[in-house]
Amino acid sequence: MRTLFITTTCPCPPDFGGSMRTYHMLKAVSAVSRVTLVSYTASARQVEDIDVVRSWCEEVHVVPPHVWGEGKFGRLPRVVVRAMTAMECLDPREPSYLRWYRSAEAEALVARLCRRQFDLVWAERMPALRLLPNKLRARVFLDKEDLDYRKMSYRIRRVGPTLLSPLEALDYFKMRRMELGITRLPYGIGVCSTVDWEILGRSRAELIPNGVDVPATAPPPPDCDVPVFVFTGLMSYAPNDDAVRYFVRRILPLIRRELPEALFIIAGRDPTGEVRRLHDGCHVIVTGSPSVGPHLARACAVVVPLRFGGGTKYKVLEGLAQCKPVVSTSIGSEGIEIEPDRHYLLADEPEAFARACIRVFRDAALRRRLASAGYERVSERYRWSIIERQVQSIVLNGAEHATASEE
Q1: Does 91 score more than 90 pLDDT?
Q2: The pTM is what?
């Protein structure tokens, strides 16, 4: 069986949510199929790092950073690039998100490859799907991951009116129409969130959760001599940027009224300038590093104060896998099959979130109960090895169905 695997998120290094999912989807597909990989890269480092997966693939084709995204604009000033990007929202049909990934070089490459005989085309996310030619004999599976229009809706409501609001609203309606329309296409579809699965229809889409590397044995429950709260994630991602600034400004002061020694660690690479300015070296630490393990080890709780976003959140799964109590908003825990007060603590308002953090620090029995139940849940449902077997089943069962149809 031969598969053309197309992704606009480079699988290497697998150091944030999108790249981790792509890495494991590719690993699963390549275990049961001969894969030709087409991957966008966002930096010279990624061009080099993609060698990690070459042994999985028959061929690897790289879309370099200078032919898409900001690279298309060359050396133009950033303010000009942003203005041109905003103007792309005026396109009457295509969301600006998709236009960002437009590349004549990538389209030509995919068109040339599609002249070959492939049994399956696996497209990671919508921009990859848009690279395909109109006429294609191969079976197509779109790993949609999540519904972007829902993330856009949350953001518009949270951020409030701005000068760009009319353009963002137009983009939202285009994205919503397009994403809800994909169920009419003759493709397989996968999403990671139970909420998105319900929206697209259980009979029409596959639920392919995000996963996590789970230790073979449960780590010991945290000792909490000091109230250390940790947030992990890619800090250039807008929902994460908003979440940590919200925590520092609205939640941490309430915690410190009762726990003046409380420490908040923001662990993740590529923090924005606004996030870096939160660092005070005393009560707020911004690491700027992709390595989160040592910081998770210090945590008495993982906090997920997200106010918008989509899909399922790796930071929740990582915390549970490390036997850390998790305090999360509804958005943070959305789409994951876990129960409030059994696997984690749920709080949406600043006062409730602060109380939950204080409670989990002071109550050792609660920490142990949440840690045990959370570890057990991710171990039985969200291990990457389990999800990879599910993907392999989708690939192979689809191939059997296609063969039977031809006969």
Answers
A1: no
A2: 0.90
